[in-house]
């Protein structure tokens, strides 16, 4: 059951799932801020890392205030930083609930829900248990332009880094799921993404300088410089 419209903040990584969560949530609720945790730990258990700094440009393109907090990314301790920034969002923007892009990660969802309960905030997971291939197809239908910013599992290799997710990539991911058990949404850590345009962006993001690092089915496409340009 969907609640009556409430003021919500979106836990925002700038990847496809948090953008889709925002897209769905805004249809029912008043999204008053985006909330991003910037982890110093590239192996963070909780938070998206590649290109997290791009959330500033995305928030500007969306016209939504952004709260960022740096975390050392230590397992479990990073949850204290999440609690602090959610408490700040509640105080500063009077949020009543928190939106997440969780699809099937009980590890992430349960910890966020526990913190929300402590802060007396409603936790809304609009993508929860979505069919992952159908979700990827919906992302294309909605018009999100998504690039692969990290690959961390066989058979995803450097050919995918920086690549826009299109119908062919969705077909590849569906095949990899069947053959190798790859989570096509990347929620098992196999893949990270960055959204550079969306129907709710007033301007699109143009990448002007980037760096690719890759070795043995693990690599990143790091955006070093980017700007907003007219569509």
Topology:
Layout lengths: L6 E5 L4 H10 L4 E10 L15 H8 L3 E6 L6 H16 L3 E3 L6 H13 L3 E3 L7 H11 L2 E7 L15 H14 L10 E7 L6 E11 L4 E11 L2
Parallel strand pairs: 1-2, 1-4, 2-3, 4-5
Antiparallel strand pairs: 6-7, 6-9, 8-9
Task: Give a description of the structure.
The protein has a 5-stranded parallel β-sheet with strand order 3-2-1-4-5, sandwiched between helices. Strands 7-6-9-8 form a 4-stranded antiparallel β-sheet. It has helices spanning 16-25, 55-62, 78-93, 106-118, 132-142, 167-180, and strands at residues 7-11, 30-39, 66-71, 97-99, 122-124, 145-151, 191-197, 204-214, 219-229. Helix 5 (132-142) packs antiparallel against helix 6 (167-180). It folds into 2 domains: 7-124, HUPs (Rossmann fold, 3-Layer(aba) Sandwich), CATH 3.40.50; 135-229, putative n-type atp pyrophosphatase, domain 2, CATH 3.90.1490.10. With 231 residues, the chain is α/β, with parallel strands linked by helices.
């Amino acid at each position: 059951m969907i609640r009556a419209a409430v003021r919500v903040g979106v836990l925002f990584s700038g990847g496809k799932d948090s953008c889709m969560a925002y897209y769905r949530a805004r249809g029912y609720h008043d999204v008053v801020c985006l909330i991003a945790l910037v982890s110093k730990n590239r192996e963070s258990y909780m938070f998206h890392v590649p290109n997290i700094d791009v959330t500033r440009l995305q928030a500007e393109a969306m016209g939504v205030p952004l709260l960022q907090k740096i975390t050392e990314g230590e397992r479990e301790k990073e949850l204290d930083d999440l609690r602090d920034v959610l408490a700040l969002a509640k105080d500063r923007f009077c949020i009543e609930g928190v939106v997440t892009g969780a699809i099937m990660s009980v590890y992430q969802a349960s910890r966020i829900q526990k913190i929300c309960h402590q802060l007396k905030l409603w936790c809304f997971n609009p993508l929860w248990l979505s069919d992952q291939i159908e979700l990827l197809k919906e992302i294309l239908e909605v018009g999100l332009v998504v690039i692969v910013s990290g690959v961390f599992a066989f058979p995803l290799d450097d050919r995918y880094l920086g690549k826009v997710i299109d119908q062919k990539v969705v077909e590849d991911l569906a095949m990899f799921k069947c053959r190798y058990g790859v989570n096509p949404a990347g929620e098992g850590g196999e893949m990270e993404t960055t959204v550079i345009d969306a129907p709710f962006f007033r301007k699109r993001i143009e990448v002007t300088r980037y760096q690719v690092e890759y070795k043995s089915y693990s690599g990143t496409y790091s955006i070093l410089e980017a700007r907003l340009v007219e569509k």
